[in-house]
Give the backbone structure.
Amino acid sequence: MASAASDGDDTLAEAARRRTFAIISHPDAGKTTLTEKFLLYGGAVAEAGAVKARAGARRARSDWMALERQRGISITSTVLQFSYRGHVLNLLDTPGHRDFSEDTYRVLTAVDAAVMVLDSARGIEAQTRKLFEVCRAQNLPVITFLNKYDRPGLDPLELVDDIESQIGLRPTPVTWPVGTAGDFRGVLDRRHGDLVRFLRTAHGATTAHEERIPAARARAEEGDAWVRAEEGCHLLDEVGATYDRATFLAGESSPLFVGSAITNFGVRHLLDAVVDLAPAPGPRIDDTGRPRPLDAGFSAFVFKIQANMNPAHRDHVAFVRVCSGRFERGSTPIHATTGRPFATKYAAAMFGAERATVDVAYPGDVIGLVNASDLRIGDSLYLGEPVTFPRLVTFAPELFATARNRDSSRAKQFRRGLERLEQEGTVQVLSDPGGDPAPVLGAVGPMQFEVAAYRLIHEFGASVELEPSAYSAARRTDLATAAALRSVPGTRILARSDGSLLALFESPYRLVRLAGDHPDWCLEPLVGAGL
Ligand code: G4P
């Protein structure tokens, strides 16, 4: 049996090998394609094409995901683990639609870096700006990939400007396109100044061939295309848009790579950047502000809960990110919220919706705890020295709907369904302590309501009607401010299940005016336990 000291060494070495990251993108920018290509480069799939097939199988098995299919959106996220260059990569997928930006936010609390994929013909799209802002707000290191360069697109300098002006992230290109979008020959790699020429493979099913060509030869062979790339790079040099580790790690600048996921151009550069530039898991800060050493006892926190991933079992999976120590299946860590031991017999590694039992895991890894119905988002688990990680914040909802039970004989289904949806963070469920007993649902995007209504009906067997409400802004408040607000027309005070109070406003302008007139009032944009 290994000694405690060698376990610690093992944990540190394993943590150092890990890169835990997410891909964020607007729908259709190429996230699925890129994920598949990462797996191809990591040797986890032999030929591109497997992920989409897998995604198809997953969707076919899960009933509420029918909604995803109808709407062509991705709501559920998956966790993939694969190896690359002796490292273990944990790739957490995020929903691509802004309506689910809160889900994205939660996934981003569990990663150490993000890859932001942009379609080079579209740049940053208004609809998804919010997702990128969420990423930016967490000060996460972000690597940018300008995808689809095989097709006509925008001028790369314009794209760089857009990223900086629209989300305040300063791109520092590491590779720069040679040839215009649509006539993409390769990239000028600014680290050595040579051309990396890409050669197509049939349907991008196998890794792209690359040829490194010294600058002088590149100039002779590529002519104008090379000269323009060099000019672009001079401009970048002049404005100081050059990779800088400190600002990258602080989430202020973003190394940028250019490529085309479909032809595999630039995919290796990007995956190398994940390994070489993205940070390995580090000690996580607990709720007292102290870092939990990586080699301390096992600890983890719940960042996502998903029910009915497999409708045949109607089960409930809590996704936890390991923060410290070595996880062993069958161990019984303490659930910090209740102080009770938690059995981990059914720990699973998730590959999409497919499961394999996981016996051991290290910092940076994600484990799915099956049938963990006591766990809530943000809960901590630990062995050894107790630790509680900070609760995850919740966004102030911007849309509201009153949920009415239309069939009193199914009141129980209605109540249980709402409880579950709130627990999973699908919608916020608010109540009016002294008023209308019908709960009010709060959301950031309208599709959250669609998902909630669909699931209440199809999954929980409830009969529900959602009545849109006139309120359009909310702030967390306290008892004193709530008392003052009760006499203000166009406002309403509701309670969250954790006991905190939310003030609702019919118009965001009224909210801004009231906040300006009463600077002493408590009107906080982030809600949620622990604040
Ligand atoms: P998403 O997960 O971000 O929503 O995007 P996804 O990978 O599904 O890609 C969206 C569409 O863009 C797909 O086409 C895909 O083939 C295409 N695509 C992805 N990367 C590239 C690229 O580098 N260049 C070009 N030209 N196209 C790319 P589709 O027609 O919607 O689907 P499919 O029939 O090709 O599967």
In short: The CA atoms of residues 75 and 455 lie 13 Å apart. Residues 25, 27-33, 96, 147-148, 150-151, 260-262 surround guanosine-5',3'-tetraphosphate (CB under 6 Å). Confidence is low (pLDDT under 50) at residues 1-6, 53-64, 71-75. Residues 224-238 form the longest helix (15 residues).
